[in-house]
Design goal:
This protein is mainly β and 148 residues long. It is built from one helix and eight strands. Helix content is 6%, strand content 28%.
């Protein structure tokens, strides 16, 4: 990563960000002079075609109240928590990412995660990464109900 971004804040793009239970958080640079980066991303199939969230997973998350405070996140495939401040340190930065769909529903054994950083001022992509990920299908718990 370029030296000019050392110590710069990384903001999470609205397209992949979710704020969790935070009431207030800053999701974009506060001044035009701030040297900052915007993290963006998408999930692709092995042929590099963008994947939507499948109907099965969409129904699952909508039937639960996981996103009561962030209803706009229900149909997003990639989520990165945006209420945690993140800075470039020694060319690295930490973040938590959640893939909100199972590859088996798309008949894939693996997914490709494409992430990129965009300069907040120039809008130019300054770094990009492509990661392959195998995501197993989760098992729904079986609840046993009985009467006494």
């Amino acid at each position: 990563m370029q030296r000019k971004y050392q110590g710069s804040r990384i903001y999470i793009a609205d397209s992949i960000g979710y704020s969790g239970n935070a009431k207030k958080f800053i999701n974009s640079p506060q001044s035009l002079d701030e040297v900052a980066l915007i993290l963006e991303g998408q999930v692709l199939d092995i042929d590099f075609n963008p994947l939507p969230q499948c109907t099965c997973c969409k129904d699952y998350f909508q039937s639960r109240f996981y996103f009561a405070t962030n209803p706009q996140c229900k149909e997003k495939l990639v989520l990165v928590k945006s209420n945690v401040t993140c800075y470039v340190q020694n060319g690295l930065f930490p973040f938590q990412i959640k893939i909100m769909c199972c590859s088996k529903h798309h008949n894939n054994n693996s997914l490709v995660l494409h992430l990129w950083l965009r300069d907040a001022q120039t809008k130019q992509i300054v770094m990009s990464s492509v990661l392959s990920s195998y995501i197993k299908q989760w098992k729904r718990s079986k609840s046993v109900s009985g009467h006494m």
